Amino acid sequence: MASGTEKTATTVEATVTSKGQVTLPRELRKRLGIQRGSRIRFSIFASGAVKVEPVLYDLEDLWKMADQGVQSGGLMTFEEMDAAKARRRW
Predict the structure, then answer these.
(1) In this prediction, what percent of the chain has a pLDDT beyond 90?
(2) Domains (ranges, CATH) in the chain?
(3) What b/e readout covers 38-55, taking b as 16+ CB neighbours within 10 angstroms?
(4) Is the pTM of this model over 0.85?
């Protein structure tokens, strides 16, 4: 986890399995609010730095919120997010 704007950083380590899987350390999950089923985004910069952040909404979900008149800064419940995902056409 790295950010070009932060002067100090907390370092955590994890081991990659033979299948390329990593268990995110508890401290990282806690700081990012990641729970079972959460989605995360990795941004990889030219310098090699990597930014990890939770994916809060899909773009389609944001459009649906806008269509429903949800105020910017408004919050969706997990149930509302699940319902929005269920309405998606794959």
Answers:
(1) 27
(2) 1-55 (2.10.260.10), 57-90 (no CATH)
(3) eeeeeeeeeeeeeebeee
(4) no
